[in-house]
Amino acid sequence: MTKIKDIGEQGLLERLHRFCPPEMIGDDAAVLVTEPEQSLVITTDVLVDGVHFSNVTTSPEDAGWRAAAANLSDLAAMGASPLGIAVGLGLPGDLSVNWVEKLYQGMTECLQKYNTPIVGGDVVRSPVTTLAITAFGQVHPSRIIRRSAAVIGDAIVVTGVHGASHAGLELLLHPQRGQNLKDEEKTALIIAHQRPQPRLDVLPILEKILPSPCLMPNTSLREAAPTPSLQDATRTCTERSRSTLSTSAICPMPIAGMDSSDGLADAVIQICRASGVGAVLELRQICLPMAFNHWLTPEQALQYALYGGEDFELVLCLPQKSASALVKHLGEGAAIVGRITPGSTILLHDEQKKFPDQVLTLSQGFQHFKS
Amino acid sequence: MTKIKDIGEQGLLERLHRFCPPEMIGDDAAVLVTEPEQSLVITTDVLVDGVHFSNVTTSPEDAGWRAAAANLSDLAAMGASPLGIAVGLGLPGDLSVNWVEKLYQGMTECLQKYNTPIVGGDVVRSPVTTLAITAFGQVHPSRIIRRSAAVIGDAIVVTGVHGASHAGLELLLHPQRGQNLKDEEKTALIIAHQRPQPRLDVLPILEKILPSPCLMPNTSLREAAPTPSLQDATRTCTERSRSTLSTSAICPMPIAGMDSSDGLADAVIQICRASGVGAVLELRQICLPMAFNHWLTPEQALQYALYGGEDFELVLCLPQKSASALVKHLGEGAAIVGRITPGSTILLHDEQKKFPDQVLTLSQGFQHFKS
Fold it and tell me: How far is it between the farthest Cα atoms of chain A?
């Protein structure tokens, strides 16, 4: 087994070059061409061996895939299309070169699905394996999706099933669990954990169903009186564009959102906090993996869905009509799971009354999950 | 002393928000507005405690400054103006919050000099303090400085003194050395190590002295016949634009270069390798700190200058006339230190014949420095 200390950081870098486009290599920095009139979107994740991944549950290929997917998901959550990622690696000398190559293999497998290159990075010696990814994307300023843009009356849409990733992790950590599950059900849950799909596919659908608010203010903005001019339309966007400093002169999309990487409950809470609103979540509308029915209690299933995290779906708040159209386009797993309300309370409501209404908070969520 | 584990990563992030522009906070990613027709330039550095910095020689403020400066220097080396940096931190729970705040203080002190914001990042738990910085800049495609663009006959310019940073590090590691130095000389060398200045100030000077090659091909490109049209000018740039895939349709600057972060010798060798050329360096033209005269032997002084590294000057290859104009504008420390030659040999030549001619190679350079 060739170790990194056998070939050195420089030798490793040379081996990793095959994962990067050749024109990105050989200078102090990489150069990317961006399209005009697009804003640049930047997101960074740091992953540490033993904290964020481990050889017990995650092969290097999967660690690479998951790291790339998490960053692309952050871009999708902002409405941005990916341009590239930069990879910073801290690696112990005793680590095998093969492990690093497999990590890159997993990253590029995920990235290639979305035509996204690795545009460079850095490899250094470190006592602990550390992976720092910075992803860049581009989005037209009017198309930025922000957490702070939810307004009262919005429908809350989830783009897919929640709880599967956490269930997959449980099965990897405790293979004796899930005895009632069929093999293909187990595999599907484990793959949901190992190979999450960033929902970049949602962006062109949003583009299709949401007309440009500045050009058609009265069809997409509920608050807007039917005004023909751009200036008036812009003014009616004030509520949505608060705290979106860089787009102050541009009427943004009638949509708020983020991804559910830290759990569905966290996403709804963060959006409500940032927007100064409350929400009601309809418990029965949240799509769970079918396999949960013959494995978990309803309480456990709900906790996995709300607090499990790493499903990397999008949680979007938008007008009811657009929400219905979006769900129809997205298909299976996508659903309107609630609505934005006045106040600041986030209420979980069960129309079948099997669960009592409960107020969701971040700390309560955390306790739920840990108990 | 408040430790990170006392307030958690979330609590720490909230304290660090004051170092970022408010509009960059609160979403899955940060949004930056770029100017039209500019290419995006990206560079990443990972720094690990005990490998790249240590509390013996580096305060957290200086570690922050140096990390920011190194990244800005990579942008300057590409001809790019900085847009922002993203900071990924891996931190042990036992580390003091104050240490991290001082790190950010140092980073922002350096960045503010160049109007560059911290546009976000990530903070995670790690057994070893790790700092991953990704810097973004912008440059017009015709203004990109690449290593591969040196041509035979170019003058090699250094933008300042070499060897000072390494001398400062020596004084920090071994305070008993440099007995013959005055206090102010010691201080100047130590500051050169602790607070290096990225040479972004060189870019507007280059813009001034180098006319746009596409508009004035015959004044700036030696190979160009006097041709009035843009098409012709572009064609004459073939030699410079080889291996610059993203600028294939654009006539680049008649200049090659990189920074001297890994030493002056390394920079010249890397440029020559990437350009497929050789070089002669004139030993007496390399500017050393005055203090070296009453501290180091001529051999030691030369080794510090050639192999010490971290001076973060630019090493630029450009036409003789432009080189003279550049040196005149830059003032003290800047000099023409050699010229680009046919072949692949990089020769160090002493016109006073006190040193024999020697061929520089990367491995030889490394041995020199370690011996």
Answer: 70
Classify each residue of B221-237 as buried b or exposed e, where b means 16 or more C-beta atoms within 10 Å of its C-beta. Answer: beebeeeeeeeebbebb
Residue B215: its pLDDT value, please?
A: 45
Name residues 98-127 of chain B within 8 A of A (Cβ).
119-127
Pairs across A and B, CB distance < 8 A: 241
Report whether pLDDT(B275) > 70: yes
Residues A6-9: contacts with CB under 8 Å, at least 24 apart: A6/A97, A7/A97, A9/A91, A9/A123, A9/A124, A9/A125
Are A46 and B88 an interchain contact pair (Cβ–Cβ within 8 Å)?
Answer: yes
Q: How far is CA B28 from CA A274, A314, B146, in A?
A: 12, 11, 33
Chain A: residue whose CA lies nearest to B314: A28
Sheet with strand A81-91: strands edge to edge: A118-125, A81-91, A130-139, A39-48, B30-33
Say if the Cβ atoms of B132 and A136 lie within 8 Å. no
CA distance A358 to chain B (A): 25
Complex-level ipTM: 0.83
Question: B82 - beta bridge partners?
Answer: B137
CA distance B268 to chain A (A): 13
Nearest CB to A132; choose among B23, B73, B132: B132
pLDDT at A361: 85
A 259-278: CB under 8 A from B: 259, 274
Span A67-116, pLDDT tens digits: 999 999 999 999 999 999 999 999 999 999 999 999 999 999 999 999 99
Q: Measured between CB atoms, does A41 come within 8 Å of chain B?
A: yes
Question: What separation in angstroms does the CA of A177 have from each of A171, A293, A296, B90?
Answer: 6, 14, 10, 33
Q: pLDDT tens digit string along B218-264?
A: 333 333 333 333 333 333 333 444 333 344 456 677 899 999 999 99
Q: What gap in Å lies between CA A318 and CA A247, rounded to an integer?
A: 19
pLDDT bucket at A364, cuts 50 / 70 / 90: low
Contact A78 B28 (CB under 8 A): yes
